[in-house]
Amino acid sequence: MLIAEDEEGHSEPIAVVASINEAREIASGDMRRRRNDLEQGGTPLCPYEYKVWARGLDGDYRVAATISAISI
Questions:
Q1: Rounded distance, CA 53 to CA 16, Å?
Q2: Which long-range contacts (CB under 8 A, 24 or more apart) does 50-53 make?
Q3: Contact assessment for residue 47 and residue 5, using Cβ atoms and an 8 Å cutoff
Q4: How far apart are CA 44 and CA 10, in angstroms?
Q5: Which of 1, 56, 60, 70 is most deeply packed, by most CB within 10 A?
Q6: How does residue 72 score in pLDDT terms, banded at 50, 70 and 90?
Q7: pLDDT 10s digits, 3-51
Q8: What pLDDT does residue 42 have?
Q9: What are the distances in angstroms from CA 9 to CA 6, 14, 19, 21, 66?
């Protein structure tokens, strides 16, 4: 699961992803959409980073990858 998080810890689910590469592509598109929304006067959550959460072998959910929104 791809989640967007801002610097204050607020989060929004973005998409279910099959790989970290897919998560990067979706995060990039999501960031473009948010920038466009902001330019048009909207107030979207401004992500600081995107996190990919996955279920581990023991059944717990863990952060599998972190993608900096600045690098997108």
A1: 9
A2: 50/2, 50/3, 50/4, 50/5, 50/14, 50/23, 51/2, 51/3, 51/5, 52/1, 52/2, 52/3, 52/17, 52/20, 52/23, 53/1, 53/3
A3: yes
A4: 12
A5: 1
A6: confident
A7: 999 999 999 999 999 999 999 999 999 999 999 999 999 999 999 999 9
A8: 97
A9: 5, 15, 24, 24, 14
How many angstroms separate the CA atoms of 13 and 50, rounded?
10
Distant-in-sequence, close-in-space partners of 39: CB < 8 Å, separation ≥ 6: none
SS3 72: coil
Task: Give the whole-angstrom CA distance, residue 56 versus residue 38.
Answer: 36
